[in-house]
Structures are given as C-alpha cells and as structure tokens.
C-alpha cells in the first residue's frame, strides 16, 4: 500500500462555485437538487468530488476515503478551519 500526497490543501467549494457545465450535469444525475446544492465539493486532478461521497477512513491521519477502483482510492484530511482538505491518492 502506498500513499502519495503533495501536502497541499484544496479549497472546498459550494455548488454555486462549480462551473455551470458541472452544475448542469449534477442536476441531471441527482434526484434531490436541494441536497446537492447544500453539499461541499473539491476539485482534485481535474475531477470534482462531493464531500458526502467519502466515508470514514480507518487509516491514521485521514478523515475520509473514496474508492475509485479496487486498486486506487482518494484520501482526505479536513483542515482545522473546515474550509479545505488535504488530498492523497492511495494505491493498493
């Protein structure tokens, strides 16, 4: 198992801060528009991720994990102010 990070914090975005194209796609793919508009997002390596898609991580020092495939996951660590996340890629 290998974890790679640049130790930078990425800002958490509100739905209205996302590009219009991304907002439109999300509205088309989600049934509850109010739910997605209340969600925070992060942009990592060109992809937008909803914070609610991450589950609690059992890995020390990381708050959440999102499995991309059986061999790769994204880890997040919330900043002290809660407005940004440190992001890493986990390779299994």
Description:
- The protein has 92 residues and is α+β, with helices and mostly antiparallel strands.
- It has one domain (2-91).
- The protein has two helices and nine strands.
- The strands form two sheets. Strands 1, 2, 6, 7, 8 and 9 form a six-stranded antiparallel β-sheet that branches.
- The termini are close together.
- The model has no long low-confidence stretch (mean pLDDT 92).
What is the count of β-strands? 9
Can you summarize the main beta sheet? 6 strands, antiparallel
Which structural class is indicated by helix and strand composition? alpha+beta
Alpha carbon gyration radius: 13 Å
| Cα-to-Cα separation, first versus last residue | 5 Å
Produce a short descriptive summary.
By secondary structure, this protein is α+β, with helices and mostly antiparallel strands. The protein is built from two helices and nine strands. The mean pLDDT is 92.
SSE topology sketch:
Elements: E1 2-4, E2 9-11, E3 13-14, H1 20-29, H2 33-37, E4 40-44, E5 47-50, E6 55-56, E7 64-69, E8 72-78, E9 84-91
Which features would summarize this protein structure in a list?
three-stranded antiparallel β-sheet, single chain, 92 residues, 16% helix, alpha+beta, 9 strands, six-stranded antiparallel β-sheet
């Amino acid at each position: 198992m290998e974890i790679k990070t640049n130790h930078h914090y990425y800002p958490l975005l509100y739905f209205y801060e996302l590009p219009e194209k991304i907002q439109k796609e999300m509205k088309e793919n989600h049934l509850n528009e109010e739910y997605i508009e209340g969600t925070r997002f992060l942009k990592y390596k060109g992809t937008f991720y909803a914070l609610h898609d991450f589950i609690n991580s059992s890995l020390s020092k990381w708050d959440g994990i999102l499995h991309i495939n059986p061999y790769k996951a994204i880890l997040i660590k919330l900043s002290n102010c809660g407005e940004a996340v440190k992001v890493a890629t986990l390779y299994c």
